[in-house]
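Incident log entry.

Two folding requests arrived from the same account within the same minute. Monitoring flagged them as a possible duplicate submission, but the sequences differ. Recording both here for audit purposes.

Request one:
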Amino acid sequence: ATAISVQQISVFTPSGEELSVSAGQFAIGRDTSKISADLGNAVSLDKFDLKGWRVVVTLGDELSAKADWDWYYTAVCLIGLAISIALTAWGASFVVNPLMRLSRAVTHVGNLNLDTPISVPTNIREVGLLASVIERMRLVLQRNQTRLEFLAYHDPASGFLNQAGLVKEYDLLVGNEGQIDLIHIKICNYHQIASIFGDEVLARMISSKIDKLQATLAGGVVGCLNNNLIAYIYPSDEGVGIPLMRKMLA
């Protein structure tokens, strides 16, 4: 230790001698009154087989003086704490923000909210791969959902509205003023047509009749039931008149 750090080292013997080193000088003194006196910060050397020996180390002023803790040090500590928190938050944002966006995307996919594309820009490779997998999953679910909705309201063979689709359209028309006519056109020999010429010919025949029906009575909603019955919902102010009906049947 330097003289600046340690001001004095004193060793007290059991017989009252004081061996001291101070400012680079070694001195020996004797004071029997200190044999049993309490020396405050003295350290006993009994455990080193030096029974009755004690050591006192006096530190220099720069170590023994109390620290001056004023507003300046407090402000420096608070500013340093704020800077460290800001840097930590800034660094964590590169991880937390992508994970939060990915979490929201997963929630939307789980709730079947499939209209929003999943975009999670990040430099974390694993998070980017997971986001791309979830985006592909969203596209597959969206296609399946669209397909299921189409099959729920349309005939899979002809693509026209089925009974559920016609009921849905009818419910939308009920609130309007005027008359709603329901016209059925049944192909009585559809079994023979399908067995001889095939289902494709039957489907083209039904499609042709529907085209003529829509050309005669434009503005209605058409559907196909059981692959042999055409249903046409026609909303109008006064309904389909007899002359128009004869024209349509012809």
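Request two (distinct sequence, not a duplicate):
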Amino acid sequence: LHQHSYDQRLALAEPIEEPRATDTFGAELYIQEREGLLRANNLDGAVTAFASAVEANPVQPDYHGLLGWTLFLKRGRGVAGAMAARPHFARALNIAPESVRVHELAGRVEEDVHDYATAASHLGKALRYGPPRMDLFASIKDMLARTGNYGRLEQHYRDMILRLREHDPLR
């Protein structure tokens, strides 16, 4: 009787889903394919390749971010593109909140839809987490000046001066 109840419980038990193994090599092949497809302006193919890369290696934040960026381009940029991209950026930043690449892509998308406060926030994080980059600083400066947020702009100037001093190769 004891064996019978164990067998019954086993039969009724929910299967435990095994964690999926990531296919890092396969995902990288999809990424390389995607780069070629983007150069050829084949956005449908690039979206498919990135979705495959995300499926093969779902813990790689850059893959989610680049899928979002490609969807943004495929949907014609603007609000429709931003709506398609945002969930992928959110997944990427959930995995790696300090991802410079994803913050930069998200910032560029928000800049395109004129959400300058959010764009400046993302670009500011990309600048904070990565090496000093004058192109990101110039974008942030323009957006904060456009929105009249001079206090935040002053803080970015101070941060950039300190960061450049820290990265000075002659020191």
